[in-house]
Amino acid sequence: MKTSVLDFIDSDTLRDHLRNQTLEPAIECIMITHSIKSSIEKKLEALKERYDTYSAEDFKLGTYYCRENDFKYALKEHINTTEKVLADMYRSDDNYVYNVRNIETLFDQVTFTTFEAAIDEIKQNHTGSQFIIAKTRINEFANDDIKAFLNEQGVIYDVMWTSFKGSIDMSLYGSYAWIPHRYVAGDIVVPTCYNTFAVVVEDNKRPLTTSGLNNNNISVRCMQFAEDNLHSCGGQFVQHNLSLFEIEYCKKSEMNECPKELIRFSQFIKGWISAAEFLEEYSKGKIN
Questions:
Q1: Which residue would you say has higher pLDDT here, 74 or 208?
Q2: Which residues of 95-114 are buried (b: 16+ CB within 10 A; e: fewer)?
């Protein structure tokens, strides 16, 4: 295999954990599809290689969910449609414009007449944020036909097509897999998409049956602490399901930046302090 699935795992922690493990073909394809750091061209190359290498029976292996029974057929349709949509994005048309929107501020947009001009604008002036480029028919701004997603480096990592929504082509986008990882309850992690910390409270380490799989099986359930002036304890804990692809194990050198509330909560989850001890400190807003 010329392409390694490790090249498509955005999280350093997850990549290191899986380095010496063998993943099933369908699991690899699902992970490749989820990559944000890799370009759409490299992802297509890797998916094609796996399609050509493995049989329909090989793709039945592993614990995952795909709404199509024939994963290999769904993979082929995904590849074909992605290539078609990507080519359509580059094809200029006087009846269409390209609207550029920051993913974090979807209501701010700039319009261009070509896809290349829109990409150049992002690469030259807006690196560091993720963007959407929507190819839209003129005077129909509420109906984005197709979209390209660009990462912080201005690289296209995915395309989406609204006209094919619900078709077999979309099956890989809705597929989930159970993926082995190193996290256990009480671990402090750093979400790469947020400038904050979190504590793992449910790790999903036990493989489930395919009938019970959902997107939570590519994530761990975590608690984050949000400071505010509304609570006498100085803030509140908020629960999130954080993707395995977008979190890193907290390093010792980063612990000084972690909120002390999360550190004590981590110690409580690991059983190092009692519930009564944690609640007394937290309720008084005096975390040791």
A1: 74
A2: ebbbbbbbeeeeeebeebee
